[in-house]
């Protein structure tokens, strides 16, 4: 009997989540042994490594278990796509306003922030030119793989369980970053998770993920 027949979707999903966390622990340990200290200037390296092993794990579990990769999140249907864009568009607009207000307030409190330009793409800094593709990869992974497989593993559909278990996993997966970053990743995952559960469209999640990760540096909130 093959592993694909032996493993239930719930067990395959659990093993995948544990394997991903184990990989992150190993990567962080290797960084520590090599003397590589994770800072704001090089944290993007850990992110790229994380994306790499998550792709490999996803393909392995898809090939040998009942673990599923749902590319249907890119084909939600016209009605769901419109609903997704409407909700995410409103959230994005609110977020942009808040970020601008934060920048203006920081100008009054921190001379270093006040000296920064109000706009800059900084595409060569921290591989920021890759961030849009990173947002696509991570949202496909979080929504079309993790969240959908957690949902499929449940005896009875529970939107809140799927969203918060996915957020908890994303929180733990960011263990190599500082605590505010970990909580920020979990909150973003939860917000976009609810939107995804309502629309089964990943496009709004990609938009919000990109704005949260790209815009603060672009408008000078983060150096």
Describe this structure in words.
The chain is globular and about 60 Å long. Helix 2 (9-33) packs antiparallel against helix 3 (43-64) and helix 4 runs antiparallel to helix 8. Helices cover 73% and strands 0% of the residues. It contains 9 helices and no strands. With 223 residues, it is mainly α. The model has no long low-confidence stretch (mean pLDDT 91).
How much helix is in the residues?
over 70%
| Total strand segments | 0
Determine Rg (CA atoms, Å): 19 Å
Number of helices, counting only DSSP H or I runs of 4 residues or more: 9
Structural class: mainly alpha
Order of helices and strands: HHHHHHHHH
Distance between the termini: 55 Å
The overall average pLDDT, rounded, is 91
- Which regions are unreliable across 5 or more consecutive residues at pLDDT < 50? none
Main sheet specs: none
What is the beta-strand fraction? under 5%
Total domain count: 1
Task: Give the overall shape, derived from the CA principal axes.
Answer: globular
Question: Layout of SSEs?
Answer:
Elements lengths: L2 H4 L2 H25 L9 H22 L13 H32 L1 H4 L16 H23 L5 H15 L5 H21 L3 H16 L5
Helix pairs in contact: 2-3, 2-6, 3-6, 4-8, 4-9, 6-7, 6-9, 7-8, 8-9
């Amino acid at each position: 009997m093959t592993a694909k027949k032996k493993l239930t979707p719930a067990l395959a999903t659990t093993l995948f989540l544990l394997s991903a966390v184990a990989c992150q622990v190993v990567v962080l340990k290797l960084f520590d042994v090599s003397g590589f200290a994770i800072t704001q200037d090089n944290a993007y390296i850990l992110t790229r490594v994380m994306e790499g092993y998550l792709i490999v794990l996803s393909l392995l579990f898809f090939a040998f278990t009942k673990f599923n990769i749902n590319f249907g999140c890119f084909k939600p249907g016209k009605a769901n796509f419109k609903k997704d864009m409407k909700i995410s568009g409103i959230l994005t607009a609110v977020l942009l306003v808040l970020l601008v207000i934060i920048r203006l307030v920081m100008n009054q409190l921190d001379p270093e922030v006040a000296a920064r330009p109000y706009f800059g793409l900084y595409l060569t800094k921290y591989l920021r030119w890759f961030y849009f593709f990173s947002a696509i990869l991570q949202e496909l992974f979080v929504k079309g793989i993790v969240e959908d497989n957690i949902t499929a593993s449940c005896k009875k559909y529970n939107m809140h369980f799927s969203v918060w278990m996915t957020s908890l996993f994303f929180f733990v997966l960011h263990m190599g970053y500082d605590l505010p970053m970990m909580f920020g990743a979990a909150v973003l995952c939860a917000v976009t998770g609810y939107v995804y559960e309502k629309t089964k469209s990943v496009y709004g999640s990609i938009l919000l993920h990109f704005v949260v990760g790209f815009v603060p540096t672009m408008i000078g909130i983060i150096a």
